[in-house]
Structure formats: structure tokens, C-alpha cells
């Protein structure tokens, strides 16, 4: 089939359905249908290899039972299809019984549908969408992998789907981080705010090249990645992404990693590799903050995720984490938890590299500048290299039509293996700083920044969001200072 035409055909159908409003709903609608189609293909394989396989999906509700149109005039459509989906399929899948014996490959069906919705109101149009998706043969390796590129386009669409964009990290960025961290088969790889699974799929692409024809290696590959995602839509997107990448038992939990007490986090299995783009600019409630030691408590979500990462990184493990400029800026011990988190990070971990990324990498979701911190759990930091990735020639901004590409990291990758200090027009582009220099700066690691950049003209909605994020960050700092003053004065 013409897979590259699939998205447009589905879009054309959904535009005529009054129940589907906007990109986010369109994507969610496609994904629950797609999930059931892919899951059915997986079950066909599991049934082939295991005569005793028993599906968690009741008879009559599997894709093959209701979705496949045999062109005999008997397939569900119109009001009958809507009634079946809304009053039988969804309620049953949302309320599947699971226990400690249920394998992850079956648990994912319930978790995927917990917060899913059927937005289509026209049963005839719903039948048309189902038929288009049914054309893909996921039992065929070539067609399944060809579809991976189409699925990636769904995820890119999230960047223009309102707040859903926060769950998508550009593929160029995830691939660059994986390329320099170099995960190896047999290592446990984690992302505790995994969104749609971009880091995990980039890591799996690297691991897949190491599998070869070994069945044992394939089993190791299948158990390599672990993710947690708080929101329903990206969780379902991520689980589907894992199935497309031949992970039969996706260990992708639907929950909030910040809701686990740090004493429990210490007892959990540590990870060899952690790859993350934690949510930032958000504010966590008091019931979440108390899960962390007093001195490391912060309202800023990204700060709290740094605590989780430090607790769960294995001895000699490696981490690459995207953080906003606000994490880098200098603070003093009396300011807020950022200082103490950075002090702990540099005192207990080897922060060997910070890559400064140009503006608009995450456009149009956020204009906030971001950076990649690379560190390992081998020793305290002795020196840290900083490298600035400049905006490529011919670009003023990245956008949906002109996104960041892996080739834009070519200079950084070449420098990575042969490090030297670089000056451009008298300003450092790459430079090494000792831990003493960093401590003297009160852990302000805003170094090798962008000295000559033109002011970025933002769309009004982006400008408002930028101010909101800056205000949230300042409010967090003020709240923390007031808390400490109140504590010093003997207040509650």
C-alpha cells in the first residue's frame, strides 16, 4: 500500500467529522485505533509461538473480530459501530482485570485506554478511518518498519498541537545524545518523563544494530528500556512506539515519577543510562515536593527530576539531560534548591560536558533556550567542558518546516572526540573550566553562551508563554527565599 499517503487520507476523512477538533484530538483518535491494529498483529505472532497464549482482550473485541472489513456487507458501520465502540469496546478495555501475575504485554492494553476517548461522532467516517489503518500489514517486517517513519510524522505533529508539544523532543537532539552516550546491549536505559518515547526509540535504534541474529540478544533488547509518563496521550503514543520497535513487553508505566519518596527511589534498580528531557517551567505541589530531602526541594519540575536522576543512576552509569537556561544561571546558597542540587551534582557526579543549544530548537512549543548536561556516576567533577552549537548558516530560527537536523550537530560530534578550546570573535565557543572555577562562580554555569545573537522576534502567543515561564521561575525563587527566611525566624 502507499503508506506515505496514509496520513493525508486519514486527515481528509477526519476533517468531515464534527467530533474531532484540532491536531491533538486527531492524533489521539488515530492512536487508539492504531494501537489496537498493531496489538492484534503482535497477538497473531504470540499465538503462533505459544499454543497456550491467552489474550487479555475478550472475544469479539479484538481488531480481527470487529475492525476488519470482509466486504460482505456485515462489517459494523454507522450508528452500530459508534454504539459498539462507545458502549462496549471502551468500557471493557478501561476496566480489564489485572493483577501481579499479568504480564506487561497485557497490562499495557488497560493503561493505554484508561484515559483514551473516541472523538468521532460519525460512524461511517469512523469506519473509513478504521479501513485505512487496516490496510497496513504489521505482520510484514518491511511494511511495519516503513510505517515507523509515518509514525514519527505523527509525533512531529505534536509540536504544533498546543500543549501536547511538550512531550516531543526533536529526533535530531535525541539521536545526537544517544550517539555520544553510546548505550550498549545489556545496559538498562531509563527515561522518567518519557513523553512519546523519543529517547527510548533512539536508543533502541542504536541497540538494534548490536543484536545480530542472536535470539538471546533479541531477548536482551526487548528488556532494555524503561519509561514513565504522567499524561495519557503521550503514554499511549509511547507504548505504541515501543510495539512498532519490536518491544513485545513495553515497560512503560503510566504515572508520575516524582510521586515516589526518595527513600524508596534509593531502593529501586539503578540504570546504566538515563536519557531525559524533563518537563520545565512547571510548578509542583507541596505533596510532591515532600518526597525529597528538605534541602533539595523545589517547585520547579526540572529540578526535582534532577534529584530522581541522581538517585537512580548506577555507579559508573551515564546520563544526558536537557535542561533550560534557568538551571544554569548562578544562584547563592540562600536563593533556592537549584544551588544545592547543582552542588550535589558536581560534588558526587562527573559533569564532563555541557552543550549549549541555539534558540527555537523546541519551536513552536517553547522559545526557552535549552542545554544538554552530560555526566556520569564515576567520580566528583574535576573539570567541565562547554560547547556552543551555533545556529546554522541560512537559519534565523528553527520551525516546523525547518527543524533542527542531526547534521547541525556535526561540528559538536567532531569536537567530542578531539576536544580543544575554540574562540570565535574573541568569545569562547568551546572551553574547559575547573571545578574550582565553577565553585567560585557559585555554580553559575552559564558559560560559552551566545554573544552576538540578534533579538528573536516571537509570535505573540510564544512571547506570552516565555514571560509566563520566566515569571513561574522567578516566583519559585521568591517562594523558596521566603520559606528559608520564615524558617530562620522560627515560623512554620
Please identify the oligomeric state: single chain
Identify the strand order in the major beta sheet.
Answer: 3-2-1-4-5-7-6-8-10-9
**Spans of at least 5 consecutive residues with low confidence:** none
CATH domain topology of the largest domain: Rossmann fold
Q: Helix/strand-derived class?
A: alpha/beta
Chain-averaged pLDDT: 87
- Helix tally equals 19
Count of all domains: 2
Overall 3D shape: globular
Q: Based on the coordinates given, report the CATH architecture of the largest domain.
A: 3-Layer(aba) Sandwich
Report the C-alpha radius of gyration, rounded: 24 Å
Q: State the CATH class of the largest domain.
A: Alpha Beta
> What's the story with the biggest beta sheet?
10 strands, mixed
Separation of termini? 66 Å
Q: In what range is the share of β-strand residues?
A: 5-15%
CATH superfamily of the largest domain: Vaccinia Virus protein VP39
Q: Please, could you describe this protein's structure?
A:
This protein has a 10-stranded mixed sheet, sandwiched between helices. It is α/β, with parallel strands linked by helices. 46% of the residues lie in helices and 12% in strands. β2 (225-229), α11 (232-244) and β3 form a beta-alpha-beta unit. It has helices at residues 6-14, 22-49, 63-66, 78-94, 104-113, 123-134, 141-157, 171-181, 198-211, 215-222, 232-244, 262-267, 286-289, 301-312, 325-328, 337-348, 410-417, 435-440, 460-488; strands at residues 189-191, 225-229, 252-254, 271-276, 313-324, 350-356, 370-376, 383-388, 422-424, 427-434. It folds into 2 domains: 3-149, N6 adenine-specific DNA methyltransferase, N-terminal domain (Ferritin), CATH 1.20.1260.30; 155-487, Rossmann fold (3-Layer(aba) Sandwich), CATH 3.40.50.150. It has 19 helices and 10 strands. The chain starts with 5 loop residues before the first helix and ends with a helix. The longest helix is centred in the C-terminal third of the chain and has 29 residues, at 460-488. α1 runs antiparallel to α6 and α2 (22-49) packs across α11 (232-244).
Amino acid at each position: 500500500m502507499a503508506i506515505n499517503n496514509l496520513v493525508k487520507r486519514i486527515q481528509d476523512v477526519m476533517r468531515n467529522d464534527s467530533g474531532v477538533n484540532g491536531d491533538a484530538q486527531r492524533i489521539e483518535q488515530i492512536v487508539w485505533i492504531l494501537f489496537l491494529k498493531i496489538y492484534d498483529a503482535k497477538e497473531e505472532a504470540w499465538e503462533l509461538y505459544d499454543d497456550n497464549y491467552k489474550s487479555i482482550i475478550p472475544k469479539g473485541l479484538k481488531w480481527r473480530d470487529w475492525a476488519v472489513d470482509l466486504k460482505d456487507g456485515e462489517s459494523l458501520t454507522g450508528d452500530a459501530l459508534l454504539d459498539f465502540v462507545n458502549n462496549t469496546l471502551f468500557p471493557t478495555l478501561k476496566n480489564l482485570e489485572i493483577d501481579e501475575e499479568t504480564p506487561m504485554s497485557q497490562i499495557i492494553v488497560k493503561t493505554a485506554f484508561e484515559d483514551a476517548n473516541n472523538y468521532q461522532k460519525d460512524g461511517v467516517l469512523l469506519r473509513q478511518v478504521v479501513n485505512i489503518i487496516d490496510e497496513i500489514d504489521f505482520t510484514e517486517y518491511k511494511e511495519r518498519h516503513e510505517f515507523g517513519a509515518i509514525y514519527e510524522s505523527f509525533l512531529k505533529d505534536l509540536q504544533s498541537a498546543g500543549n501536547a508539544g511538550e512531550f516531543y523532543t526533536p529526533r535530531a537532539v535525541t539521536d545526537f545524545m544517544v550517539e555520544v552516550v553510546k548505550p550498549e546491549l545489556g545496559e538498562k536505559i531509563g527515561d522518567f518523563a518519557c513523553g512519546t518515547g523519543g529517547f527510548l526509540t533512539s536508543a533502541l535504534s542504536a541497540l538494534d544494530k548490536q543484536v545480530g541474529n542472536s535470539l538471546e540478544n533479541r531477548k536482551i533488547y526487548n528488556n532494555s528500556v524503561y519509561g514513565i509518563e504522567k499524561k495519557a496521550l503521550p503514554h499511549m503514543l509511547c507504548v505504541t512506539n515501543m510495539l512498532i520497535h519490536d518491544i513485545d513487553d513495553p515497560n512503560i508505566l503510566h504515572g508520575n515519577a516524582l510521586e515516589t519518596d526518595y527513600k524508596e527511589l534509593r531502593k529501586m534498580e539503578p540504570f546504566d543510562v538515563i536519557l531525559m528531557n524533563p518537563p520545565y517551567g512547571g510548578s509542583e505541589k507541596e505533596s510532591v515536593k515532600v518526597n525529597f530531602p528538605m534541602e533539595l526541594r523545589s517547585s520547579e519540575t526540572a529540578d526535582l527530576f534532577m534529584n530522581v536522576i541522581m538517585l537512580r543512576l548506577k555507579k559508573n552509569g551515564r546520563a544526558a539531560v536537557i535542561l533550560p537556561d534557568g538551571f544554569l544561571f548562578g544562584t547563592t546558597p540562600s536563593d533556592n534548591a537549584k544551588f544545592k542540587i547543582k552542588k550535589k551534582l558536581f560534588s558526587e557526579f562527573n559533569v564532563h560536558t555541557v552543550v549549549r543549544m541555539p534558540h527555537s530548537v523546541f519551536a513552536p512549543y517553547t522559545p526557552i533556550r535549552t542545554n544538554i548536561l552530560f555526566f556520569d556516576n564515576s567520580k566528583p567533577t574535576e573539570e567541565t567542558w562547554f560547547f556552543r552549537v551555533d545556529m546554522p548558516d541560512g537559519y534565523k530560527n528553527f520551525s516546523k518546516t525547518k527543524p533542527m537536523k542531526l547534521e547541525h550537530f556535526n561540528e559538536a560530534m567532531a569536537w567530542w572526540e578531539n576536544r580543544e578550546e575554540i574562540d570565535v570573535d574573541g568569545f569562547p565557543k568551546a572551553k574547559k573550566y575547573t571545578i574550582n572555577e565553577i565553585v567560585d562562580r557559585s555554580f553559575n554555569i552559564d558559560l560559552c553562551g551566545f554573544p552576538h545573537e540578534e533579538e528573536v522576534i516571537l509570535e505573540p502567543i510564544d512571547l506570552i508563554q516565555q514571560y509566563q515561564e520566566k515569571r513561574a521561575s522567578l516566583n519559585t525563587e521568591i517562594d523558596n527565599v521566603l520559606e528559608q527566611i520564615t524558617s530562620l525566624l522560627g515560623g512554620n
